[in-house]
Predict the structure.
Amino acid sequence: MRALDDTALLSLWERGAARHALDRAALLAAAARPDWPPESIADRPLGAVGDALLRLRVASFGTRLDGHADCRHCGERLGFTLDLRDLLAEAPAEPVPGETTAAGLRLRAPSLRDLAAVAALQAEEAARRLLARCMLAGTPDALDDAARLAAEQALEALDPQADLALALRCAACGTEDLAQLDAAALLWDEIEARARALLRAVHQLAQAYGWSEPQVLALSPLRRAHYLALTGGAA
């Protein structure tokens, strides 16, 4: 996958800054997979979208992820380091099948459009409505607990990359928990940080040399860093 260059990154940041997180995820996926028709992205399986975003993150910012999560038991902030290649290695070699069956039900994998439809609901109602949207026939209201559990497990097995999580153990209280990994948020955090650094560099070098934004962005990162050092700025 091709890395984002500085010009493309700034354009992506500008277009995505004011968007809802799910709409932004679709925008990032379109950048990651220009071979996908843009109108198809909202209906693609979540795992496929997440995989594309992780690959763009690796191509543009490297494989190492330094992150943190707060312990839900005691509030302690837990730092972690992750090699994103480990997550990508677990991605299915083949595309997610169109559907699966469980408890006599036909189910399809959830998509960004499905998440958007339930985003404003409380967790329990959102889970029920999400399952309903993924059922090709029937309604979740008619399911008993065993059938509902079977359906949810079938969806997880159908698209295992749709819900990425990292097992953590709190060093303060010993609680073991899962930290959810949002591929779109991980990628966007990097894009936003890089965009702000680029804008500072453009501002600094424009003041010092009168260069335009395209001229500054056309410099290699090494030359830009040296010019910034000469002006008293930071790369």
In short: The chain has ten helices and six strands. Residues 183-209 form the longest helix (27 residues).
